[in-house]
Amino acid sequence: MCGIVAYFGKKEAQPILIEGLRRLEYRGYDSAGVALLKDGAFDLYKISGRIANLEGIVPEPSSPATVGIGHTRWATHGKPTTPNAHPHIDCTGKIAVVHNGIIENYAILKKWLIQEGCTFKSETDTEVVANLIGYFYEKNLSRDGQNTPQRNNRFEWAVQQALNEIHGTYGLAILCLDCPDIMIGVKNGSPLILGVGENEFIIASDTSAIIEHTSQAVYLSDGEMVCIRKDGFTTKTITDKEVQKELKEIEISLDQIELEGFDHYMQKEIAEQPQVLETCLNGRVDVKNGRVVLGGIQDQLRDLTRTKRVILAACGTAWHAGLVGEFLFEQLARIPAEVEYASEFRYRNPVIDEGALFIAISQSGETADTLAAVEQAKERGATVLGVVNVVGSTIARTTDAGVYLRVGPEIGVASTKAFTAQVAVLTMLAIELGRRRHLSADIAQALLKELTEIPKKVEHILTQNEQIKQIAQANIDKDNWLFLGRGLNYPVALEGALKLKEISYIHAEGLPAAEMKHGPIALITDEMPTVFIATQCSQYEKIIGNIEEVRARGGKTIVVATEGDEHIKQYADHLITVPDTVEQLQPLLTVVPLQMLAYHAAVLRGHDVDKPRNLAKSVTVE
Ligand code: AGP
């Protein structure tokens, strides 16, 4: 939800922090700030709005600092104002903190700290963390008056004392004025990674802010902290137990996080789909034998043959992919399946029997609601798999096993290539589970053969960019749209509506097409474009009927149809075509024009496509 970056080394910290924040800006962009530690003082710069605003107030340093922390915010507690921007410095002026997450008990702690004489300048929970650390550091006594630590560990000890009082989630980077040779990072429920370079260290919310400095990283687990000094770093739990962490190679490259000539990351990621789908399928599809090889879950697959029920849990776009998965598990593997909104599932005291397969779907692998659902499913004995994009993310490391999407970093807040890859992985999983039950080899071979054709068919759809842009242009002034589909295209209708909503700010609703006559058809006027996904499939005649119902009431129709379908042209005010494919694989194609439609609508409306208002790429708070 927010982006943290911190630098400890020999180079000038300021430009490294600013560039790192720019790479993390997609995680939140309500306000930004940096604190530089130099000559016994903090140089603190923070401002509401984008990183560009921060760059405008940070002066060229006369004597550059080589240690500093930075933050780009998605507001949770307190408005996106300058006083609420991070870093926060405690009332003694000695502790500076940047934080990603939510402190659940911040109000009671704030009340106690005020009683103890602390003062506050902001409405944030993060300032409570800074003051709590400052309190223990200053008093040098724990809350019960004991544990006066040795002086040289006093900063670390004060951090641990503060964390023991806190309930909630946090990724933290912390500095202390008296200890310029130490920087502390802590992870609990929010992402935090330590990049280890040549005599320099970078702490960040994700690897995109680290990769241009080093490809070596330490992935902290929840409840762990890292204490960085000039000669190296130590890792321990927040209860002061040493832990050994291995250095891992960061798997993304710098060019993967660059725009590479595109106007927006979303545009780049839509265009990348053919090749990243190839990568996602590569080495996993065995057409000859009609089998799927998913290395990450091979051990679990044997046991899963007897699975009695599949529960998929996700949020947003990932949930839409999960709905496709639900249909495919039932159609291909004949296993009862249901997709759950993770945010609802976790509070519903769900019935999860031992034989259940629980699949968490998450591009970022850090979505708090999905992570909580995973933890609950594990507690109740389900086998828990992850379908995740970000390697080493919290969900990826919490599940029993999983399948990575392999689509590279998805920077645009609106998820595109991750959706198609999630659907591709769920399709492969449904086929493989089906093959271990009743699905015949020849059906599986045909499906898998067609699956390998999908990337080229997506490539073909991308050539309609200009037509789709014109359709967006023709409807850009309409403030309410409908997206309708049936069967496996119903989840795609939901996804198309979400894409349009979240980046063009046009209100849109996705529905099963047949539901229109149960109420929503009352909405139809010529001011409400209706997008129909009407490819040739088992419900083709039915969807034609639904289109006629809308047109009979003066509704304008944008139709996504199968290439070469002449019959449907009479029903379409605007027509987009996709290559023919088997019904089970149609979502992989029909979603692409809707991604492009939303993209052009947002650009034509002059919005920041990659950083739409009020949103962030990774929702790491509940
Ligand atoms: C998708 O376009 C949205 N940005 C959002 O709904 C997203 O899919 C959702 O927050 C889930 O994120 P995740 O896949 O990283 O868990």
Structural class: alpha/beta
In what order do the strands lie side by side in the largest sheet? 3-2-4-1-10-9-11-14
Taking the sheet with the most strands, its summary is:
8 strands, antiparallel
The CATH top-level class label of the largest domain = Alpha Beta
User: How is the CATH topology of the largest domain named?
Assistant: Glutamine Phosphoribosylpyrophosphate, subunit 1, domain 1
Number of domains: 3
Looking at how many chains there are and whether they match, the oligomeric state comes to single chain
CATH architecture of the largest domain: 4-Layer Sandwich
Bound molecules: 2-deoxy-2-amino glucitol-6-phosphate
Helix content: 25-40%
Number of helices: 18
Average of pLDDT = 93
Number-wise, the strands total 26
Low-confidence stretches: none
What gap, in angstroms, lies between the N and C termini?
10 Å
Q: Can you characterise this structure?
A:
This protein has 18 helices and 26 strands. It has 622 residues and is an alpha/beta fold. The chain has three domains: 3-250, Aminohydrolase, N-terminal nucleophile (Ntn) domain (Glutamine Phosphoribosylpyrophosphate, subunit 1, domain 1, 4-Layer Sandwich), CATH 3.60.20.10; 258-459, Rossmann fold, CATH 3.40.50.10490; 463-607, Glucose-6-phosphate isomerase like protein, domain 1 (Rossmann fold, 3-Layer(aba) Sandwich). The protein has an eight-stranded antiparallel β-sheet with strand order 3-2-4-1-10-9-11-14, covered by helices on one side. The longest helix has 22 residues, at 441-462. 2-deoxy-2-amino glucitol-6-phosphate binds at residues 315-318, 362-364, 367, 370, 413-415, 502, 618-619.
